[in-house]
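Quick one, tokens below. Sequence please?
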């Protein structure tokens, strides 16, 4: 059974469904943080001067009819704190506390671990906004510009979600961490973001689509494990965030769809794979971008064998993807699993306790999900009569974290020497020449219904609006 659905209070300075008005101390603390957030948004958010944008804003936390669409000035977007519906009967589904009621307060013995998990998740949200700050200036259409800005405002709201938890449940230490989430900046030499992928540049729209397909998909799986948490406010926060995250992956999936479709059209028209001269992005170049963004995202899952992941699971604070659908005892104390390894110059597998293999378990779920996009894009090529396929490289290729960090492995899984790797890597990863070509295509198209020549138009508009709808108004 679930309790009555809490409505979002949009009359408050901070929209919320957590009764901020009933906790004046917390409300004042968040209202003091809000101007700092708005300053950060002004300094590090989208760098395009718009009048308003056709944006989706959450108005309810239920499964249907939860969002409202309208043109909104970007700096007036109603960021807020939204948790999904409360289930008073929910129990912890895994670990040594399995079967116990979920926690409404932070257990003292897990305080440091929970705070760390929330900070790491929170740090990724503003990072992606910073990485994408200048993309609006080269948008291939108003439709795409609108989607970029929708992603940005929702990443900002996801930051609010983590900041609320830090303020509400972690005292002074939490407030200090919330301040640091705005002090770090993507790519900064002095105070970079915590995770490496969130310090990479996103200088062009092909990179943006790859990021939203591969890296935001990592976010989906990390949020999915936190949604299982025995700490109920974190679980309910992540469940709602997953609703918004789905759109980000849609942007990536359909964006790459459209790039592949346009490349296929140019290949047919000019009867050549070398479409760069015709203003397109060659398949070989698309493959290089897949190789890079996929492997950087694989690193986000951490080491294949992890005592931290085991401890989080045993404590009940971070579960597995779709934990309650798993057909086992949800304890794993006596189970074994196999993880990837690299030993004596050879790719191998090690048997380890299942609790230590949870990072690899999650990575496996992620990899299978990533394969769905490759099937889509290859169907586009096959339909166009093109005898070529895009692929995911070997899990050991181009890795900087985990078992393969010291290995030189080709996309097809062959171990090579360092000298051979250095001689061949430009065939597999984007070169400066590749990046320069992609950037050369990035010219803005601001007329409703028009589209840049390197990408196909979308098949449908947003919220039943036509593709040529004026999604963005300028000053």
């Amino acid at each position: 059974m679930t309790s009555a659905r809490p409505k979002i209070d949009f009359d408050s300075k901070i929209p919320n469904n957590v009764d901020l008005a009933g906790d004046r101390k917390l409300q004042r603390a968040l209202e003091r943080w809000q101007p700092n957030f708005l300053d950060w948004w002004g300094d590090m958010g989208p760098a395009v001067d718009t009048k308003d944008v056709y944006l989706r804003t959450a108005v309810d936390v239920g499964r249907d009819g939860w969002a409202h669409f309208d043109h909104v000035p970007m700096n007036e977007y109603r960021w807020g704190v939204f948790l999904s519906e409360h289930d008073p009967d929910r129990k912890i589904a895994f670990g040594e506390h399995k079967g116990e009621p979920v926690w409404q307060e932070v257990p003292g013995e897990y305080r440091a671990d929970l705070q760390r998990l929330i900070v790491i998740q929170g740090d990724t949200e503003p990072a992606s906004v910073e990485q994408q700050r200048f993309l609006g200036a080269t948008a291939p259409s108003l439709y795409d510009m609108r989607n970029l800005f929708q992603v940005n405002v929702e990443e900002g709201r996801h930051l609010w979600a983590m900041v609320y938890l830090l303020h509400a449940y972690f005292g002074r230490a939490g407030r200090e961490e919330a301040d640091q989430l705005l002090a770090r900046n993507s790519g900064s030499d002095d105070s970079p973001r915590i995770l490496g992928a969130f310090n990479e540049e996103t200088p062009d729209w092909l990179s943006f689509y790859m990021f939203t397909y591969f890296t935001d998909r990592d976010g989906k799986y990390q949020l999915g494990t936190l949604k299982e948490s025995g700490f109920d406010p974190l679980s309910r926060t992540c469940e709602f965030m997953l609703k918004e995250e789905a759109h980000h992956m849609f942007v990536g999936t359909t964006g790459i769809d459209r790039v592949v479709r346009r490349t296929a059209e140019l290949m047919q028209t000019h009867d050549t794979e070398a479409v760069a001269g015709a203003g397109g992005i060659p398949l070989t170049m698309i493959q290089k971008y897949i190789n890079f963004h996929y492997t950087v995202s694989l690193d986000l899952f951490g080491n294949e064998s992890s005592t931290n992941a085991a401890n989080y699971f045993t404590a009940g604070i971070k579960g597995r993807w779709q934990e309650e659908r798993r057909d086992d005892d949800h304890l794993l104390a006596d189970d074994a699993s196999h993880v990837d390894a690299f030993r004596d110059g050879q790719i191998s597998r090690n048997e380890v306790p299942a609790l230590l293999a949870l990072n690899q378990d999650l990575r496996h779920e992620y990899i299978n999900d990533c394969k769905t996009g490759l099937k889509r894009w290859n169907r586009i090529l096959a339909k166009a009569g093109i005898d070529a396929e895009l692929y995911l490289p070997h899990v050991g290729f181009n890795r900087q974290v985990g078992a393969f960090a010291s290995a030189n492995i080709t996309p097809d899984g062959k171990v090579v020497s360092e000298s051979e790797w250095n001689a061949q890597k430009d065939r597999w990863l984007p070169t400066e020449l590749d990046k320069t070509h992609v950037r050369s295509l990035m010219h803005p198209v601001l007329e409703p219904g028009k589209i840049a020549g390197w990408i196909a138009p979308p098949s449908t508009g947003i919220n039943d609006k036509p593709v040529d709808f004026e999604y963005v108004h300028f000053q």
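The mean pLDDT is 96. The CA atoms of residues 102 and 230 lie 5 Å apart.
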